[in-house]
Design the sequence.
């Protein structure tokens, strides 16, 4: 654990950073600019409704194009597809356990799994990319 | 002796002028775009030949900025009364072909007169919004016109149901009239609603946004939560409005249109038993439960695309209209968060003012944890659910399907919130928190001191589970009316709904409570 002070738009925030991988104790990853301004209108990302308060998000893999993101924070139970596999939109691709309940993650679009970004047992944050689809 | 034909001809001529609205070209252009015009919308809303128009001969009385000498037939709004499924309804419809449907003094007066009438007569008001906004030429008269409408929206709130359709532009202050009504239906195309449009936002803050992002039906249905239903087009919007009204009373002193079945069917529904997963961690779609519970699977879901962890909507159970509020374990584990609390509380309060019994289906592990929730004010928002249920005096029937943990269970209408009946399935778990969390608090020292803390913890968890992972502990203390097989749920609710229709509950007199907003 390391205590850091991060200043965003003139406001200072104290954050605790945990280095999950002690081998690479480089600098703490720069927090992605907090509430990325406009969200896509028809987005079904459940988090979309609440603008995230200004706080540095944890070191989660940044969601990019084709990313399948976790709708909530929890423990990754399983990745239900393999790299290279083609999935249809709406197919179950992962399972996350949070609040004593399994939440199934479904493919937001059809495509081929090009990369899996988290392992079963990992604690994942809301918005963390679990895998990437092509 | 008969009335002079000259007079009749004049009337007929004046009617023709009014019905021509903004002129043939404008009406034709709209039709080509696939849009209905203001009058067509009202005629299509009501039963054939029942629409009686009011104020057809109204015109603006503005003498400035080139409006003197110009005529605005009906002053840009069509108002009147008609019948929907045999019940009267008042409605107004902005006429975009007349001065862009902009609101001036007479336009506002027509809407206000209609609302006053509807309030006195006890019939709902439907407003079809398709307007360029304030009529700038009329200045403060136009501003005051909005104020007059807003005031009446508030006056009518809780007296008569108010439904808004957004079928065109609805910008700036104009958006606050629909916002004050009970339900908003918005068409997918041609409609947008916003306070500050992309140009104003760009000029004021430099932020670049698109209309799709801030003002579309999709944005309001899934992100902002400002609207309740999305319609494919004008006709679909009217269909939704009629469907919605089929569950609502005309006013707050009438009962909703119950259609009690002549005899009560108390036979079990074995299919409901099959729906419940054996493993408590496996989510199931609460829609499947609701489908089996309600008459003909006919469930009108409200705000189906927003805060999906809570499902709310209207249905009938053996003919009795009820509002259903249910946790959805498929989304965010069925937790209550900021948005779902707002959604639930507003729906419950609507049911209460219009005498609609509330059926609550509980499968909740708690309030949503997290920084965004805490800092966003989940305390204040979650409190709305408690406030709404506790202050609600209509019949309140609760069924605990599975988890009922902590304060979140109280916020789902526990017996303490004066639920009239609380049924629990054998899978129900009523506890202050889940087993894992509880033993960490209860046996912190013992676990730390144990040789094998993991094993000790598991032992305590099993012990706690055995005690509380069933509804019997709570039932023993009288916190539950009965424990029932899932297959009995529809029969028991049907019976309880009928029994509680005559419910009377008085509360201490006061102006109104102070709900945490």
Sequence:
């Amino acid at each position: 654990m390391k205590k850091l002070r991060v200043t965003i738009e003139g406001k200072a925030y104290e954050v605790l950073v945990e280095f999950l991988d002690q081998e690479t104790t480089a600098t703490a990853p720069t927090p992605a600019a907090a509430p990325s301004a406009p969200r896509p209108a028809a987005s079904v990302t459940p988090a979309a409704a609440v603008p995230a308060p200004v706080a540095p998000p944890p070191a989660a893999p940044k969601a990019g194009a084709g990313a399948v993101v976790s709708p909530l924070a929890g423990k990754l139970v399983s990745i239900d597809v393999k790299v290279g596999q083609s999935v249809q939109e709406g197919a179950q691709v992962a399972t996350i356990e949070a609040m004593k309940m399994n939440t199934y993650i479904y493919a937001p679009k059809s495509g081929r799994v090009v990369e899996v970004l988290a392992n079963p047992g990992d604690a994942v944050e809301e918005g963390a990319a679990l895998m990437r689809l092509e | 002796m008969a009335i002079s034909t000259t007079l009749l001809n004049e009337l007929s001529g004046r009617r023709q002028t009014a019905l021509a609205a903004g002129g043939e070209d404008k009406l034709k252009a709209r039709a080509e775009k696939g849009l209905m015009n203001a009058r067509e919308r009202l005629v299509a809303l009501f039963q054939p030949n029942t629409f009686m128009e009011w104020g057809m001969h109204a015109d603006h009385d503005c003498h400035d900025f080139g409006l003197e000498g110009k005529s605005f037939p009906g002053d840009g709004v069509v108002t009147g009364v008609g019948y929907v499924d045999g019940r009267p309804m008042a409605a107004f419809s902005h006429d975009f072909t007349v001065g862009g449907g902009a609101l001036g003094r007479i336009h506002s007066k027509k809407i206000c007169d209609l609302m006053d009438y509807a309030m006195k007569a006890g019939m709902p008001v439907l407003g079809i919004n398709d307007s360029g906004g304030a009529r700038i030429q009329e200045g403060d008269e136009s501003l005051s016109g909005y104020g007059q409408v807003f005031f009446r929206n508030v006056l009518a709130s809780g007296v008569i149901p108010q439904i808004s359709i957004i079928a065109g532009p609805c910008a700036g202050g104009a958006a606050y009239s629909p916002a004050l009504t009970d339900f908003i239906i918005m068409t997918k195309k041609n409609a947008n609603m916003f306070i500050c449009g992309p140009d104003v936002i760009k000029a004021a803050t430099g932020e670049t946004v698109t209309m799709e992002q801030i003002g579309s039906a999709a944005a309001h249905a899934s992100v902002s939560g400002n609207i309740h239903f999305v319609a494919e087009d004008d006709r679909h919007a009217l269909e939704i409005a009629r469907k919605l009204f089929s569950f609502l009373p005309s006013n707050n002193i009438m009962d909703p249109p119950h259609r009690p079945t002549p005899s009560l069917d108390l036979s079990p529904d074995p299919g409901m038993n099959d729906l419940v997963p054996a493993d408590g961690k496996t989510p199931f779609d609460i829609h499947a439960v609701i489908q089996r519970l309600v008459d003909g699977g006919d469930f009108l879901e409200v705000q189906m695309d927003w805060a999906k962890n809570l499902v709310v909507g209207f249905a009938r159970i053996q003919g009795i209209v009820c509002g259903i509020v249910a946790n959805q374990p498929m989304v965010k584990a069925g937790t209550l968060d900021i948005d779902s609390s707002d959604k639930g509380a507003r729906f419950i309060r609507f049911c209460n003012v219009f005498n609609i019994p509330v059926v609550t289906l509980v499968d909740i592990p708690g309030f949503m944890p997290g920084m965004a929730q805490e800092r966003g004010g989940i305390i204040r928002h979650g409190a709305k659910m408690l406030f709404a249920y506790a202050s609600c005096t209509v019949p309140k029937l609760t069924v605990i399907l599975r988890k009922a943990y902590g304060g979140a269970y109280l916020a789902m209408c526990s017996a303490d919130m004066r639920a009239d009946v609380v049924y629990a399935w054998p899978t129900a778990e009523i506890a202050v928190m889940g087993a894992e969390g509880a033993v960490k608090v209860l046996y912190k020292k013992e676990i730390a001191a144990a040789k094998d803390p993991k094993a000790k913890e598991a032992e305590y968890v099993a012990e706690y589970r055995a005690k509380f992972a069933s509804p019997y502990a709570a039932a023993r203390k009288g916190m539950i009316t009965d424990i029932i097989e899932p297959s009995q749920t529809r029969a028991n609710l049907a019976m309880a709904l009928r029994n509680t229709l005559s419910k009377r509950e008085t509360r201490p007199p006061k102006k109104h409570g102070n709900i945490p907003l």
